[in-house]
Design brief:
The longest helix has 21 residues. By secondary structure, the protein is an alpha/beta fold. The radius of gyration is 19 Å and the shape is globular. The mean pLDDT is about 95. It folds into two domains: about 90 residues, Rossmann fold (3-Layer(aba) Sandwich); about 130 residues, NAD(P)-binding Rossmann-like Domain (Rossmann fold, 3-Layer(aba) Sandwich). The protein contains ten helices and eleven strands. Bound molecules: guanine. The site of guanine (GUN) has 7 residues, from β4.
Length: about 300
């Protein structure tokens, strides 16, 4: 069994990006610039955004954090989005989800200029991805694909079982795994809350991607010997022995599942750090204009 070390891989990718940024800056160009919009004070969201901003610095990017209270009106948030769309100093930006209930997430996503949508959540980018055309890929699915690629895990013709059909992980990763591409060309089962026989499906899988947000959901009896297990869950469970009162666990019962696997991602230190580097890769692409060349 080999542990897929997302933390280490993320350090490598950030160093690769930093080398490219340094080269561009040495020619007189400004550094790539990512903006993040954080609404309210959801503790997990705050921690994710802090991480994104820190990673920008590590890769030599500029970052701007825009924070507003949860009571912000939809109109005011739309104005922030329009201003970021129009700001030539900003290459790409994200609006951290979830948003407060009175704001329609899709209205905000639709207002983002697809050329600056480095989260890859806009239907234009999701549509291009589905067609196999160049686009910004959503960060978590892209991070998973990078892990498979960099660990030389061949998924062509393999059975993949994705558990969870969210717009930001389950659905897009099911498309990427089955795309005519490398890595790709896999046969994909997409399981969700209405799938009656998840265990039966999971047992057929050479690769399992678990993204439903339930601690220890995937147990050893659901995993075929030699499977590759990608754990996307980041769940906070109470732990009085920790200074902050919680610890992070994935959606996989790691201790019992790991011995059966050929490869497995840990939590923390697996998919999470890769998600942040994917965002930087997209921001680099926004900066170079390789997805949406300037007209
Ligand atoms: N909330 C959870 N994951 C993400 C993400 O990748 N991007 C944004 N904007 N919000 C999120």
């Amino acid at each position: 069994m080999e542990i897929i070390n997302g933390k280490e891989l993320a350090v490598t990718i950030k160093a690769e990006l930093k080398a490219k940024v340094d080269k561009a800056v040495a020619t007189g160009r400004r550094a790539p610039h990512l903006a993040a919009v954080l609404i309210g004070d959801h503790p997990a969201s705050r921690s994710y955004v802090t991480n994104k901003v820190r990673s920008c610095t590590e890769a030599g990017f500029k970052s701007t954090l825009i924070q507003r209270p949860a009571e912000i009106s939809q109109e005011a948030l739309l104005q922030i989005v329009h201003d970021l769309n129009d700001n030539p100093e900003i290459d790409g930006f994200i609006v951290q989800l979830p948003l407060p209930e009175h704001i329609h997430e899709m209205d905000i996503t639709l207002a983002i200029n697809p050329a600056k949508d480095v989260d890859g959540f806009h239907p234009m980018n999701l549509g291009l991805m589905t067609l196999g055309l160049p686009s910004y890929l959503p960060a978590t699915p892209m991070g998973i694909m990078q892990m498979l690629e960099r660990y030389n895990i061949d998924i062509r013709g393999k059975n993949c079982c994705v558990i969870g059909r969210s717009n930001i992980v389950g659905t897009p990763i099911s498309i990427l795994l089955s795309r005519k591409a490398t890595p790709g060309d896999a046969t994909v089962m997409l399981c969700h809350s209405r799938t009656p026989n998840i265990k039966e499906m999971a047992l057929k899988a050479d690769v399992l991607v678990v993204a439903l947000g339930r601690p220890n959901f995937l147990t050893a009896d659901m995993v075929k010997d030699g499977a590759v297990v990608i754990d996307v869950g980041i769940n906070r469970v109470e732990d009085a022995s920790k200074k902050n009162g919680f610890r992070l666990v994935g959606d996989v019962d790691y201790d019992n599942v790991a011995p059966k696997c050929s490869y497995i991602t840990p939590v923390p230190g697996g998919v999470g750090p890769m998600t942040v580097t994917s965002l930087l890769i997209n921001t680099w692409k926004a900066y170079t204009g390789e997805i949406y060349p300037a007209k």
